[in-house]
Amino acid sequence: MNDASTVLTTFDRGVLQLTLNRPDKLNSFTPEMHLALRAGLERAHEDPEVRAVLLTGAGRGFCAGQDLGDRDPRKGGPAPDLGATLDSYYNPNLRMIRGLEKPVICAVNGVAAGAGANIALACDIVLAAKSARFIQAFSKIGLIPDAGGSWSLPRMIGEPRAKALTLLAEPLGAEQAAEWGLIWKAVDDDALMDEAMAIALKLAAGPTVGLGLTKQLIQGAATRGLDAQLDAERDAQRQAGRTADYAEGVTAFLEKRSAEFKGR
Ligand code: T3D
Fold first, then answer.
1. How confident is the model at residue 4 (pLDDT cuts 50, 70, 90)?
2. Most buried residue among 68, 82, 129, 222 by CB atoms closer than 10 A?
3. How close is the Cα of 6 to the center of ligand 1, in Å?
4. Model-level pTM greater than 0.70?
5. What are the chain's domains?
6. Looking at ligand 1, which atom is closest to the CA of residue 140?
């Protein structure tokens, strides 16, 4: 069921680019596309040559969430078990993005709706084209915000804005999303891919272990108190301090040259 054409994969200088590729349907999710995305994320996890991931969409949209053509009630039969789809498809990919020990950059090239919006927002650094918009479209069809949205939105923008976005399902423009702190940056449409790739390449040339530990620490802070976080920092710093990249970083500083990190 993994149809590789639904997610295009390229690899260059440590960056694995994954491009959602069902442009005629605004890259909405089918089981095939879920599995192709999962295969890309698994490669990112397993392949030490991959040191950053860049996620984007083909065509004029980033991702319109679930393919509703696959959910047509007019076809008859019992109501689908959407909890099962979340378990089988959406949640594993969300967990992989959050759990990946390497940075995931998202270039939101156009509309991001439903689970498509929340998958983008789960990435570590999110850039969006100024023309892009984020739509928590779920309430329009009687659903709840999934793909982590009900967890991440109140944490990122607070309960009042999270509730209004999800209950009203109004589009949020990229620049407003950046002003609210929902994403890192809104950039000119023409500059999006160059800027996103520049960030991905910079991170791919960085101290991968330290970057991965930093990602996990920041994410874990939401569910830990200060004491537990200080302990987590101690453990992570111990690990980072044993990497070859740490030794190289300090040596490069002392020798007044640029560090050449190897990701180890
Ligand atoms: O089911 C489960 O497993 C549970 C999990 C659910 C997760 C979810 O994501 S639920 C939310 C699902 N998504 C939506 O409700 C969004 C539906 N789409 C839209 O509201 C609009 O398309 C957009 C606001 C995203 C964009 O509007 P616009 O005017 O720019 O484009 P358009 O004309 O509506 O769409 C262009 C084409 O893409 C069109 O196809 P056509 O007519 O040219 O053949 C349209 O039908 C198709 N498309 C857009 N979104 C979807 C889609 N086809 C299937 N599923 C979609 N979600």
1. confident
2. 129
3. 16
4. yes
5. 7-204 (3.90.226.10), 208-254 (1.10.12)
6. 15
